[in-house]
Write a structure and sequence with these properties.
By secondary structure, this protein is an alpha/beta fold. 32% of the residues lie in helices and 22% in strands. The protein is built from eight helices and 13 strands. The strands form three sheets. It has an eight-stranded mixed β-sheet, sandwiched between helices. Strand 1 and strand 2 form a beta hairpin. The longest helix has 23 residues. The radius of gyration is 17 Å and the shape is globular. The protein binds 6-phosphogluconic acid. The site of 6-phosphogluconic acid has 14 residues, from loops.
Length: 260
């Protein structure tokens, strides 16, 4: 269904959601490689995507369809910790997917979040993006055009590491920033809205009943301004992929949007 010009797909449970997301990624990966030789994807962190990453690396029906050698894995954001730290998004993806695949043949662009200066880690990552997207001509109006950016959403409507009331919400030029998150008293390294809104596709993957209130608010144009609402790909698709628990509150929105 389409709600407030956003694609919204609801699946009976998190297992069905994970499989559908993996299939969508396989489809996008193969069409991108066919079109321009590579699939540039930014992975999301947090806990929700780990089952998806594991399935992509272990389910033969998905794994055999992925053009692994042509995929360039990036990260949408990272905590200001080293790759071994339990909070590390890289560690989560590494344990769920990369290790199972054997990292030597994979193109992994990790954020060097172990650097003392989060700003320096952000600058280095932006340089990495420029080095990858520039020479390949994969730019849209001077911004990197990811084939896919995977996003999650927090109960406060944050996405990547763009939190409510954080200065990063107002960034209009840089591709990657160190964003101070007051509630965690730490910097996060995150891509910015200009990068998110230059993607060909953004998948917002959300599961669980605890997320139902924020999903309803985020899809309800009238309700407040949450960072996730500022994700509006200019020449791309924003696709919400939800399990029924997370989508519990959108029925009313759907019936209003699609009266029988
Ligand atoms: C991060 C993420 C963040 C995450 C949400 C949802 O580094 O934490 O990039 O944006 O997607 O916080 O996290 P959960 O999936 O754990 O609910």
């Amino acid at each position: 269904m389409v709600l407030n010009d956003q694609e919204v797909e609801v699946f009976p449970d998190s297992k069905a959601l994970t499989l559908a997301a993996a299939r969508r990624i396989a489809l996008l990966a193969n069409s991108a490689v066919q079109d321009h030789g590579v699939f540039a994807v930014a992975l999301s962190g947090g806990s929700t995507p780990s089952a998806l990453y594991r399935l992509m690396a272990t389910d033969e029906t998905i794994r055999s369809k992925m053009p692994w050698r042509n995929i360039h894995f990036f990260f949408g954001d990272e905590r200001h910790v080293g790759p071994e730290h339990k909070e590390s998004n890289f560690r989560m993806a590494n344990e769920a997917m990369f290790q199972a695949l054997g990292t030597k043949d994979l193109h992994i662009h990790r954020i060097l979040a172990e650097l003392t200066s989060a700003s320096e880690a952000a600058e280095q990552y932006e340089a990495d993006l420029r080095e990858f997207f520039g020479p390949r001509g994969l730019l849209a109006e001077g911004l990197p055009r990811f084939d896919l950016i995977l996003l999650g959403m927090g109960p406060d409507g944050h996405t990547a590491s763009l939190f409510p009331n954080s200065s990063g919400l107002r960034e209009t030029a840089r591709w990657v920033i160190a964003n101070w998150v007051e509630k965690f008293k730490t910097d996060r390294i995150t891509v910015t809205f200009p990068v998110l809104n230059s993607a060909a596709e953004v998948i917002v993957l959300v599961a669980g009943e605890e997320k139902a209130p924020i999903v309803t608010k985020a899809l309800n144009r009238e309700a407040g301004d949450y960072p996730i609402q500022a994700v509006r790909p200019i020449h791309g698709i924003k696709r919400w992929m939800l399990d029924a628990s997370a989508a519990a509150g959108i029925r009313t929105l759907a019936s209003e949007a699609h009266p029988r």
